[in-house]
Design brief:
Strand content: over 45%
Largest sheet: 7 strands, mixed
Length: 119
Amino acid sequence: QVQLQESGGGSVQAGGSLRLSCAASVPAYCMAWFRRAPGKEREGVAAIMSATGSTQYADSVKGRFTISQDNANNALYLQMNSLKPEDTAMYYCAAGPPCYGLTAKYNYWGQGTQVTVSS
């Protein structure tokens, strides 16, 4: 059983930056960030394999967001730069195994942290 707790959300103007954090209760084989905007499906944002550091990104965030991890502290991060109003959503941390890349089938989920980007 993996417990996840996100932090770091907030309100920012377009073009600004935020860094999200996710604290895991135990080491996770793989982790990912998802988001859900009002009225939309949950969307995979970025994923990482803990052992190799291999990453995946949604096309909508490539070049703007960076996923990283601190394995010593069971922590996951999402650095978000050049934020746009369409990035406004609740952001969730997820963990496996099993690992599903950017598909929202992970067994373990955090409660989410809200990111609001104003124009």
